[in-house]
Inverse folding.
């Protein structure tokens, strides 16, 4: 739970909420054609339920917010550039939304989608 | 220009474009985009990188062009595939990736066709749109994607009206422009920032560049740029005066309410060349070169768009002669940098030291040193003016390292501060600069090389004090070895020799003396002779450093 203590009380943001923001940001990033789960078994169960944080892992240890994203990239794009733009977009959107710094955003490219052969 | 104009008009008349002709279109698009790069850069709303969109798109297009620059293939389809490949490999940033997808889609549609005609142009643009949209799950409208879509639609409509490539090209440029103007309506973040989408604008410039090429319009001079007054660089344009354009006219004016900059440029282009427009606080400054006898025309024209406050005129032909006389041999030639290369920026305390750095391949010089720290802005401008996004900076003074670091956080370019605390350290690091090298490797090497050299400085104490166990009286010569005070004496020669002793100069090979403005050449040579006598095994070099405060800056390596 991400916590910010204010004079008149406190605000708590759950990792789940952060994951939702990250999920939306990732799907809007150019070159990302889908998200993947970090391990296969979870992937199967999640495929059945529509999960707003599928493919996103948020951890908060009381000090740092760390986000892991597992993406599938369009074949034929420059993967490093796509991944780096996902990293920037997700960090920006999360920080803008919750107003707290994110310490790391790790992008894992889990696969490529070939939509058309060149 | 006339020749090119006829030639391109010809290729359009044929209603077909082969691979070699496409090359010129790509080059025109790239050149025009580069000319307007800063406009696109200034449209960034995202406070985090997508970097500078303009720079990213230029680098992507440059990579695309490089791929075909020396290719003699005439098959249109094959050349477009090479363009797409180059764009993919060189894609920079989000907009670069999308741009590469646009080319990829276009290439698919024209696969292996010999020459492009109107029908394939329309097909290509449609496929470009489809491919670009396939690259993302949730396309964001109000971006370069929207512009690509509107361009494809406009091409389809234009084709039904007239199956003529030039006609279609004109229509799609208009459509791209209108589409860019609409982006704030589709994307709230643009509206909040009061800008249009940068990637879309970049795509527009590429297309417009192609159209300008067809029409035979110039591609090198911007038609709508307004730069801040302070950054107008009049000196540089002097080096590029065209024969016949002998008079430089500078006019300050305050325009009336409605001021159409594009129209302004278009009209002035009929009068002269090297047009620059600067703005500060509502006052505009126009700079233009005109032929002798036409120097009053710009004034007459400016009177139509506003009230002028000041006019200055200079005879360039005479000026150039004077400059050539003055600078013969002493002009600083800085290294030319290509996009993608590593450029070095050096902060230097004096003109002689600047020359030494320039001879080692520095691409930009910022003046500054002890007691004359450059501003963050000065350093930042040096970064921004370099045509590459990989930069190393050598502060060459411990007081400037922080400023350099601050400046490096303000740019989206990749900047590494090599924390050189003295001129000798900076020079040693410069020896390891490899412009084509891997950035991280080069930075590592430069950081290491800094410590291959011992630095000495001889200056005068500004007050009496005791530091590092050395008692110093105001006005005495003091010697600093690697920034640490080693002795204080009333005699310059003694201070210099004392420093070399303390630095164990006898264990080294080369001693270089940079003498400052407070030392005459004779005095410097005399002391150098004394050093030669004391250190017969070592090679001694004397250089005019031209730095203030420091009598000598000494490099021992």
């Amino acid at each position: 739970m991400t916590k910010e203590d204010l004079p008149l009380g406190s605000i708590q943001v759950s990792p789940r909420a952060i994951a939702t923001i990250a999920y939306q940001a990732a799907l809007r990033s150019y070159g990302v054609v889908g998200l993947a789960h970090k391990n296969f078994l979870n992937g199967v169960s999640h495929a059945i339920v529509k999960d707003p944080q599928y493919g996103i892992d948020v951890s908060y240890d009381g000090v740092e917010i760390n986000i892991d994203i597992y993406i599938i990239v369009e074949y034929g794009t420059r993967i490093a550039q796509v991944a780096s733009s996902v990293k920037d977009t997700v960090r920006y959107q999360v920080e803008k939304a919750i107003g707290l710094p994110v310490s790391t955003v790790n992008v894992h490219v889990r696969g490529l989608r070939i939509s058309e052969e060149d | 220009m006339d020749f090119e104009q006829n030639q391109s008009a010809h290729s359009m008349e044929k209603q077909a474009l082969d691979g070699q002709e496409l090359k010129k279109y790509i080059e025109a698009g790239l050149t025009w985009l580069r000319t307007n790069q800063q406009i696109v850069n200034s449209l960034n709303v995202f406070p985090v990188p997508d970097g500078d969109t303009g720079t990213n798109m230029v680098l992507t297009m440059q990579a695309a062009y490089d791929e075909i620059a020396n290719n003699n293939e005439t098959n249109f389809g094959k050349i477009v595939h090479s363009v797409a490949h180059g764009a993919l490999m060189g894609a920079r940033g989000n907009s670069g990736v999308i741009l590469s997808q646009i080319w990829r889609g276009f290439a698919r549609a024209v696969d292996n066709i010999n020459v492009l005609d109107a029908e394939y142009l329309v097909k290509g643009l449609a496929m470009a749109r489809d491919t670009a949209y396939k690259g993302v799950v949730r396309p964001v409208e109000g971006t370069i994607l929207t512009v690509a879509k509107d361009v494809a639609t406009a091409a389809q409509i234009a084709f039904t009206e007239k199956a003529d490539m030039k006609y279609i090209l004109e229509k799609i440029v208009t459509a791209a422009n209108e589409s860019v103007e609409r982006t704030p309506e589709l994307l709230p973040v643009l509206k909040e920032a009061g800008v249009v989408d940068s990637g879309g604008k970049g795509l527009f410039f590429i297309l417009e560049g192609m159209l300008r090429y067809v029409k035979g319009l110039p591609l090198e001079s911007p038609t709508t740029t307004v730069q801040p007054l302070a950054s107008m660089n009049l000196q540089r344009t002097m080096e590029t005066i065209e024969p016949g354009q002998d008079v430089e006219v500078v006019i300050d004016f305050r325009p009336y309410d409605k001021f159409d900059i594009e129209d302004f440029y278009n009209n002035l282009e009929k009068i002269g060349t090297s047009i620059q427009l600067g703005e500060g606080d509502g006052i505009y400054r126009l700079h233009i070169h005109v032929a002798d006898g036409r120097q009053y025309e710009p004034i007459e024209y400016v009177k139509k768009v506003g009230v002028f406050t000041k006019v200055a005129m200079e005879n360039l032909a005479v000026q150039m002669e004077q400059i050539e006389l003055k600078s013969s041999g002493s002009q600083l030639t800085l290294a030319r940098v290509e996009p993608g290369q590593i450029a070095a920026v050096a902060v230097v305390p004096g003109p002689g030291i600047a020359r030494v750095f320039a001879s080692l391949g520095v691409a930009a010089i910022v003046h500054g040193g002890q007691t004359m720290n450059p501003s963050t802005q000065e350093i930042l401008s040096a970064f921004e003016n370099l045509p590459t996004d990989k930069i190393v900076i050598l502060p060459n003074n411990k007081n400037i390292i922080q400023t350099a670091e601050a400046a490096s956080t303000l740019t989206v370019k990749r900047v590494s501060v090599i924390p050189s605390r003295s001129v000798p350290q900076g020079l040693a690091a410069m020896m390891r600069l490899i412009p084509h090298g891997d950035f991280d490797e080069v930075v590592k090497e430069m950081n290491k090389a800094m410590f291959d050299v011992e630095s000495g400085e001889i200056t005068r104490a500004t007050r009496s004090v005791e530091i590092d166990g050395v008692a110093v009286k105001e006005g005495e010569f003091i010697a600093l070895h690697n920034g640490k005070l080693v002795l204080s004496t009333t005699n310059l020669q003694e201070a210099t020799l004392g420093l070399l002793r303390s630095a164990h100069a006898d264990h080294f090979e080369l001693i270089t003396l940079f003498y400052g403005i407070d030392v005459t050449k004779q005095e410097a040579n005399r002391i150098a002779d004394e050093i030669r006598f004391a250190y017969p095994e070592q090679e001694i070099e004397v250089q005019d450093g031209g730095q203030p405060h420091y009598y000598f800056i000494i490099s021992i390596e």
Remarks:
- Chain B touches chain A through 27 residues (CB under 8 Å).
- The first strand of chain B starts at residue 227 and ends at 228.
